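User: Here's a structure from my thesis project, written as structure tokens. My advisor, Dr. K., wants to see whether a designed sequence matches the one we expressed. Can you design one independently, without my sequence as a hint?
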């Protein structure tokens, strides 16, 4: 049976971006879909644009009564979806060609046990006029299959626009902005299996006004949200060396010298002790050496071994 897909578009102001996305949807060879646009814009410009596409495919437009922001506008689009398969596409992203949606649908049919799919994609840097192809390497594919929590180290899935998943009661955490996608993926994959499509199916627009651009490296967003995400994880999450390494780099890059600021955040004692041990080692090394790849990796390995010995492997 052909999967019925709800293409959910959380939109905000960018009429030209949305038009490009809708044009890429209009030419899709796979037609078992609906489009939902939830609009955070202050005016009706996007409503008028959406109305011009209703003759090409089923499109339902919703004007938010108040500005929902990221990621609650994503959640609102999903709430309005009537089909079981959810394909969030941000308004600055678009399908690569007319068979993109068909490739997602075929993957669903060919992998009946999977609930979550993601594809290769390409980043389109608007300001730099360059393209970057993003594929899942064999190493990270094997690592993700072994333990989805490696996403706490690196987001090897990509942005929500490259995913297709079966609708559940899970939603994106409205208190997050920077790690919101990783948080959702790890919670979803705790209970459901995934499948990777090694085809570049989505163009991901990269530009300076994106949320991830103004929140990257900002402690109030990036590090605080990472701590918030860690709170939801079990005490043994650091036993995976990739996760441990990811947090080693995070502590190093944010130059964390104390966890006092986050002591009341709800971190478990195990997590707090592990991060504090990282801090104590990093404080003993000059920043220059700590930023040197080989030295940092060696220290991380020493720290990890000490952690595992302390936890009896």
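Assistant: Designed independently from the structure alone:
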């Amino acid at each position: 049976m052909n999967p019925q897909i709800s293409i959910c578009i959380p939109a905000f102001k960018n009429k030209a971006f949305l038009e490009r996305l809708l044009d890429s949807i209009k030419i899709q060879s796979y037609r078992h879909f609906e489009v939902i646009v939830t609009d955070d814009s202050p005016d009706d410009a996007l409503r008028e644009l959406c109305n011009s596409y209703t003759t090409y495919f089923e499109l339902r437009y919703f004007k938010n009564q108040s500005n929902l922001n990221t990621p609650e506008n994503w959640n609102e689009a999903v709430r309005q979806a009537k089909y079981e398969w959810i394909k969030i596409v941000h308004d600055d992203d678009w399908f690569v060609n007319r068979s993109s949606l068909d490739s997602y649908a075929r993957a669903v049919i060919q992998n009946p046990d999977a609930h979550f799919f993601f594809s290769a994609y390409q980043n389109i840097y608007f300001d730099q006029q360059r393209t970057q192809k993003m594929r899942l390497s064999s190493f990270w594919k094997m690592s993700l299959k072994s333990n989805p929590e490696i996403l706490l180290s690196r987001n090897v899935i990509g942005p929500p626009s490259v995913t297709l998943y079966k609708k559940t009661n899970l939603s994106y955490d409205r208190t997050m902005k920077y790690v919101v996608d990783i948080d959702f993926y790890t919670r979803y994959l705790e209970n459901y299996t995934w499948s990777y499509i090694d085809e570049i199916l989505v163009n991901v627009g990269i530009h300076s006004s994106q949320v991830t651009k103004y929140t990257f490296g900002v402690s109030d967003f990036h590090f605080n949200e990472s701590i918030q995400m860690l709170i939801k994880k079990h005490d043994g999450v650091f036993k995976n060396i990739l996760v441990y390494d990811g947090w080693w780099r995070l502590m190093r890059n944010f130059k964390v010298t104390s966890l006092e600021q986050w002591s009341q955040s709800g971190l478990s004692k195990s997590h707090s002790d592990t991060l504090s041990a990282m801090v104590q080692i990093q404080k003993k090394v000059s920043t220059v050496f700590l930023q040197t790849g080989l030295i940092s990796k060696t220290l991380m390995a020493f720290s990890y071994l000490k952690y595992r010995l302390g936890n009896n492997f």
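When you compare it with your expressed construct, this may help: The longest helix spans residues 293-310.
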